[in-house]
Amino acid sequence: MTGTAQPKHGGRAYHSVLESHFDFIRELRQRRKTWKEIAEVLFIEHGVHVTLYAPYRFYQRQLRRRAKGHWEDAENQTGLPPARPIAVAKGPQTQPAPLPAKPDFKQPDRNKLNDGDFT
Predict the structure, then answer these.
(1) CB count, 10 Å around CB of 21?
(2) Closest by alpha carbon to 28, among 16, 18, 41?
(3) Helix, strand or coil, per DSSP, at residue 31
């Protein structure tokens, strides 16, 4: 085997270094801390070196994901009623719907029209 690195396939999915600090970030936001202050506190207290925007993006993404729910959790909630009640269709209509009334429009006679009317 040569000294070149072999490509890896599969492996662990990407996880943010901020995942274990989500509750801490939420607590700081509830205390009205800015994102810059949160990034500094993460570095000082937890040794997590991130940019100014990383906590903001991570926090917003986590809020969206938690609000949406997880697809595996949906399988466990089979006892819930359907969103819309199931309606059974009735038999065919006995009488067809009435047609709209004819308008009182009369088509003009082409022989009585003058060519000069359309200039």
Answers:
(1) 22
(2) 41
(3) coil
The pTM of this model reads 0.50
Q: What is the rounded CA–CA span in Å between residue 54 and residue 46?
A: 15
Query: Domain coordinates of the chain in residue numbers?
Result: 19-66
74-99 pLDDT tens trace? 655 556 666 667 777 677 767 777 88
Neighbour count for residue 37 (Cβ, 10 Å): 14
- CA 32, CA 118: separation in Å to the nearest integer? 74
Burial string for 42-76 (b: 16+ CB within 10 Å, else e) reads beeeeebebeeebbbebbeebeeeeeeeeeeeeee
Contact 61, 25 (CB under 8 A): no
pLDDT, tens only, 31-66: 999 999 999 999 999 999 999 899 999 999 998 888
Identify whether the C-beta of residue 37 lies closer than 8 Å to the C-beta of residue 48: no
Amino acid letter, residue 17: V
